[in-house]
Design a protein that fits this description.
The protein has a domain of about 55 residues. α1 runs antiparallel to α2. It is mostly helical. The chain is flat, with a radius of gyration of 22 Å. The longest helix has 23 residues. Helix content is about 65%, strand content about 0%. Keywords: Membrane, Transmembrane, Transmembrane helix.
Amino acid sequence: MYILAIGWGYVALMMALAEASNANGSILGGIMTFVCYGLMPVGLLLYVMGRPARRRRREQQAASGQPDTGGHAPGAAEPGGVAPVRKEP
């Protein structure tokens, strides 16, 4: 799977360099070519192809009974956020 991503990235990089070095091209055009033809499709491909592995990992974690290792306490405020304040009854 990764060999396809590396190959596609190489081709997109060569397209971007050709765009940037062309007499009618520009650096911005080369960057946009690399992002639109290289990074976005490869990112989508890796995300879609990695779905079964993520599912297996999630199922194994649920079956083992291990708690979530997200790093936040349950119900804790987000970093930089304000914790809720309750009035006493």
